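User: Reviewer 2 asked us to show a designed sequence for the structure in our supplementary figure. I'm pasting the structure tokens here. Could you produce the per-position amino acids so we can include them in the response letter?
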């Protein structure tokens, strides 16, 4: 009876650490975060009034730091707050997370883990936003008469709390997996979320893919057939500086040059780095950049610097081709910044001319029915194509099959200032095993590099189902001689089948014979496989578009990866419950 009553009372008790007074907030461990000694004391004179957001509303706390008593401690004057230690201008997380019931993102504001877990669950199932949850929390606080406790920037603090909580959780999983024991994570809460994710996202992404491989293998799911597709709903704005980012594949020793992936400044088309670099170009250079090399229509180049054409300002007519690393960095940034902005201005002008030319509704309908994006693209000369989209596929690659199912249309050129969304690979069960951001358009070269990621993670992969499988089949086949690894991406080692949902758009005779899921060589392998599983997954996935369009580079990718991870976990748990029910 006592344990039953305690179980009902304890969850509602607002004690979040080892404190005895419900008004206080203290770190749960008495050990020093620097020297490990147990001789720490609570510095009550340094207490700060703080607000903690809980499921029941905001609570007011006295946030009290600890200090070490040992004279030999190297940081005896530093403070250890509830879940971070403050020293040298940094607020480094102190864990493990399992010992905490509250996460303070600074000395004055924190969120309970119960609130964050509910928020995470609602984001997965109901697609709630940080702004919406902040409004709900404010309304609840006003009803309780505690509206003055919440900060004015609650939406920002709430998003920071969620991002830091998920980042700490993932990094603790990485450390625990590597060492076999629970450890803390080195995360600085005083820096921005984007800065914290910039140095850790590659580790988190690698851990996600490796853990997914382990879980899929343990569940006994088929990985020899995978479905890939692009989701164009979740997009964000990118810098207009052309060819400044390289998507590299070490196994193929090839790369794709795309726009700078950084977020542009408010009211500008370029990011802070390119704007600053371009502005810092002085008169110390006596040459100018007048052109850059064409990377080939596919943009799939070998590793190495880009070649630029420079002109001597003193000696008229003297031009020279040099590597980009020999040219002043600010001059390079200014050149590609201007090229990118000129392309966007040109596209905007062309779009405006088309709008102004539609004088009547009949003419507008006739224009829409009589011309297509493919006609506009065909009307351009090769130089214009390369200038507009350097990573576009060649005419030969696009015309290798008669099916008009490729993704490189005039609309993709119009959206040059945004990403093209993300590429996802799914199993038939709906589990997403990999995700990569794509730029400009869903080009064959970027899909080719994505297939190389899947092949490296899943050596038993035999069939890729894709809505544009015919073009991808021809593309990989034409590049099978690049290396031994490239040969494993091409038929017959790796086959490409169209998904049933998009098969109606495939009309080429070769495609119907080689890439149809009903073809004899696919009939047995694709038995029971949902080749259109990405379409069902994207029905849920696309509803995050209203949040992701405002996000920065690494926040965008980390947010989607977390939602995918939670989505996968739901499928794993549901499958386990189903198997348990069947056995019983």
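Assistant: Here is a per-position design you can include in the supplement:
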């Amino acid at each position: 009876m006592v344990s039953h009553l305690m179980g009902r009372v304890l969850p509602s008790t607002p004690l979040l650490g080892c404190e005895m007074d419900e008004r206080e907030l203290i770190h749960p461990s008495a050990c020093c975060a620097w020297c490990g000694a147990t001789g720490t004391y609570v510095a009550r004179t340094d207490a700060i009034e703080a607000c903690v957001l809980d499921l029941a509303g905001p609570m007011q706390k006295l946030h009290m730091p600890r200090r070490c008593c040992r004279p030999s401690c190297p940081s005896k004057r530093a403070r250890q707050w509830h879940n971070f230690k403050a020293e040298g201008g940094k607020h480094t997380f102190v864990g493990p997370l399992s010992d905490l019931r509250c996460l303070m993102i600074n000395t004055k504001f924190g969120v309970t883990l119960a609130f964050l877990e509910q928020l995470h669950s609602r984001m997965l199932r109901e697609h709630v936003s940080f702004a919406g949850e902040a409004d709900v929390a404010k309304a609840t606080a006003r009803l309780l008469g505690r509206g003055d406790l919440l900060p004015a920037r609650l939406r920002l603090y709430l998003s920071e709390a969620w991002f830091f909580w998920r980042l700490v959780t993932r990094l603790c999983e990485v450390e625990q997996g590597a060492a076999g024991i629970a450890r803390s994570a080195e995360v600085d809460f005083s820096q921005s979320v984007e800065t914290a994710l910039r140095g850790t996202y590659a580790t988190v992404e690698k851990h996600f893919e490796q853990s997914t491989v382990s879980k899929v293998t343990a569940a006994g799911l088929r990985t020899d057939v995978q479905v890939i597709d692009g989701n164009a709903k979740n997009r964000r704005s990118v810098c207009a500086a052309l060819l400044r980012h390289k998507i590299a594949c070490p196994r193929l020793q090839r790369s794709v040059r795309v726009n700078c992936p950084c977020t542009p400044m408010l009211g500008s088309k370029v990011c802070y780095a390119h704007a600053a670099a371009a502005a810092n170009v002085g008169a110390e250079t006596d040459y100018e950049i007048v052109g850059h090399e064409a990377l080939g229509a596919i943009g799939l180049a070998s590793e190495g610097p880009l070649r630029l054409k420079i002109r001597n300002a003193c000696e008229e007519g003297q031009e020279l081709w040099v590597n980009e690393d020999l040219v002043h960095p600010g001059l390079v940034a200014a050149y590609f910044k201007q090229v990118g902005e000129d392309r966007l201005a040109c596209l905007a002008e062309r779009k405006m001319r088309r709008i102004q030319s539609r004088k009547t509704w009949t003419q507008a309908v006739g224009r829409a029915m009589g011309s297509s994006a493919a006609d506009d693209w065909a009307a351009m000369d090769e130089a214009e194509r390369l200038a507009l989209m350097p990573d576009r596929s060649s005419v030969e690659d696009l015309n290798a099959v008669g099916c008009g199912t490729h993704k490189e249309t005039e609309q993709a050129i119009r959206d040059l200032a945004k990403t093209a969304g993300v590429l996802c690979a799914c199993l038939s069960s709906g589990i997403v095993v990999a995700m990569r951001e794509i730029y400009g358009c869903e080009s064959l070269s970027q899909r080719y590099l994505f297939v190389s990621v899947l092949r490296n993670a899943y050596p038993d992969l035999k069939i890729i189902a894709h809505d544009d499988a015919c073009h991808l089949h021809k593309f990989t086949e034409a590049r099978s001689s690049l290396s031994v690894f490239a040969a494993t991406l091409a038929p017959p080692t790796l086959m490409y089948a169209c998904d049933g949902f998009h098969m109606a758009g495939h009309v080429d005779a070769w495609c119907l014979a080689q890439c149809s899921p009903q073809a004899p060589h696919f009939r047995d392998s694709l038995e029971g496989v949902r080749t259109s599983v990405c379409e069902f997954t994207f029905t849920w996935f696309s509803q995050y578009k209203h949040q992701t369009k405002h996000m920065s580079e690494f926040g965008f990718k980390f947010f989607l990866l977390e939602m995918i991870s939670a989505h996968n976990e739901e499928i794993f748990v549901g499958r386990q419950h189903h198997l348990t029910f069947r056995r019983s």
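For the response letter, you might also mention the following. DSSP finds 21 helices and 21 strands in the chain. Residues 2-191 form one domain.
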